[in-house]
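hi! just following up on the protien thing from before. the input was this:
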Amino acid sequence: MTSGMDRHRYRVAALASLVVVMVGIWPVLLTPIGRSYVDFCARYLTDAPFSHHYPPLLVAFLMLAAAPLLIGLAVASIRQFTGQRHLNAVLMARAYESGEHVRHIVARVQAHGHVVVTTDKAVYAFCSGIIRPRIYLSYGLLDLLTEDEIEAVVRHELHHVARRDPLRFFVSQLARQLAALFPVLVTMDDWVRVRAELAADRAALSAVSFETLASALIKVARAAPVAEHRAILAGFTATDARVAALLGRPVRIPLNRRDVLVSLGVVLNLVVILSWLATQALPLPPDCSVCPPF
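and the predicted 3d structure came back as:
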C-alpha cells in the first residue's frame, strides 16, 4: 500500500519533472539569464583561460535550479541554529551540579565537559549541538536508572559526540527535504540515523553488558516522551532497528522500489534536459529590419 505521504512525494516529483521538461524545451525562459551570463563573461572573463566555454542555457538552467535549493538550505540552517540556541539556553538555565555518583561515571568514561545534567523530571538523554555537541541528561533519567544503566546511556551518547552525529543528522535531514524530488532520500536519511544509533550501541556494549543497555532502553522507552525540538538531536530512544539488533536479529532498512523508480525517473529527466541544453545556443534577437514600422 502507498501511504498518503508517499503519494504526496510522488505527485511533487512528477510536477517537478514536468517543470524541468517545460523549462528545458522552452529555452526562451532561460534566455535572460543566459544573456546575462554571456555579458558577464565578456566583460570580466575575456582574459581568463577558459573564457565562457560553458553553454549559456545550461548555466542558466543550473542557476535557476540552484536558487531555491540555496534558499531552502539557508532557511533550514537558520531554523536549526535558532532552535539549537534556544534549546541550549533553556537547558543550561536548568543545569545543576550532579551527584557524586554521576561525576564518578563521567570521569570513568572520560566525558568531562561534555555532560550537562538538568533539573527536568521528564526522562530524556540526548546529544545536541552541531559545533560543540553536548550530552544532556535529565534528573528524571538519573532517578530512574541504576549507575550501570546511566553509564550505558552516557557511553552511547558519548559516541554520538565523538562522531559529531548531530551534524551528520543535520546534513541528512537537509537531504531528506529534497525527498519531494528524489523520494529515495527518505530511506537514505533513515539509513544514516539507524547506522549511527547501532554504532553508538556497539560502543556502549564494549564496556557494559547487553542486559544493562537493554534495561536502560526499556526504562526510557516506557517513560513519557519529551516534546519535540527544532534542533537536531541524537537521542537515547527505542527504535525497531535497535531492538532487533539487541535481540540478535538482522537489521534491514527496507528500500521502497517505487521510491527508487521515481527518483531514477527524475534523474533521467534531468540528464536528458541538461544534455540537450548543453547543445543549444542562445536564441538570436529578432531582426528589427523586418519589423513593421510604428
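DSSP finds eleven helices and four strands in the chain.
Residues 20 and 110 are 53 Å apart (CA to CA).
cheers
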